[in-house]
From TrEMBL:
It comes from the Bacteria. It holds the Pfam family Peptidase_M14. It comes from Pseudoalteromonas arctica. Residues 29-304 form the Peptidase M14 domain. Transmembrane segments: none annotated. Belongs to the peptidase M14 family. This is M14 family metallocarboxypeptidase. PROSITE patterns: PEPTIDASE_M14. One of its GO terms (biological process) is proteolysis.
Amino acid sequence: MSENNYPIGTQGTPWNDKDKQCWFNQQTIKRSYQSQVVTLINELDNDFEVVKYGALSFDPTRYPLFIIKSKEWSSNKPNILITGGVHGYETSGVHGALHFMKTLGIKYEKEFNLLVAPCISPWGYETINRWNPAAIDPNRSFYSPSPAPESAALINYIKAHNIPLLAHIDLHETTDTDNSEFRPALAARDGKVNSNWNIPDGFYLVADSNKPEPQFQKAIIDTVVKVTQIAPSDENNQLIGVPLEQHGVINYAARNLGLCMGFTDAQYVTTTEVYPDSPTATEELCITAQVAAIKGALDHLLTK
């Protein structure tokens, strides 16, 4: 553990509205959601149905929200949800979802109805942020009523269309900035002492402790290991402070924590984590690992 020297707020005291506004005022636009994400979504319009399911009230023109959906929808096929960019700064989740649809979407929609929300938090994408403009973590807000508009929009879409899901694959990253920025900010916001975690060097999965489906998780790991390394556990046989359940897999109580992977009744759920700051990683490799994770998950489901 280490003392929190974060430059906003008073140590030991949760942030008030003034502190949150101070944090927001320090955020800057670093990249473009429209040119880097929406453009790629629109390129998929010929092969899939692109649905605008909402927009962020913070700036609705700048931040529309899209789902890419199978055109050949059939009640005889199981429904699969793939999400990325719940944490906007986790780049390969966004582009992994898009690259999967570009390269493999048509193949797999023959067997599945695909729903892909590639960038749930577009403001977070542009500012390279874990939180939304109100200093709320969307990936701790997947419950109703949700305090995060990003989370609420997806929850409402799935509920309004009464879409039963077989599986939900949520694409994430664990980065060095978790320790340098985001965990210190979290401790400051909540008035707690910061405790960093050991950043795993490689790919790993977070399963839902209430429905872990270990063979499903193993199938994903077995596919991803062909393209990148699986994160080894630390000296305590843990990843990010959580005991290892099997090679490359830990469990979280997804619904209790408000995680994206926990908001539906899907039987098969997982959260992917890649490490883009590894000396062995590249942007392309991280995207390839995300695509491999989706492929491994769907190939396993085809055997069921």
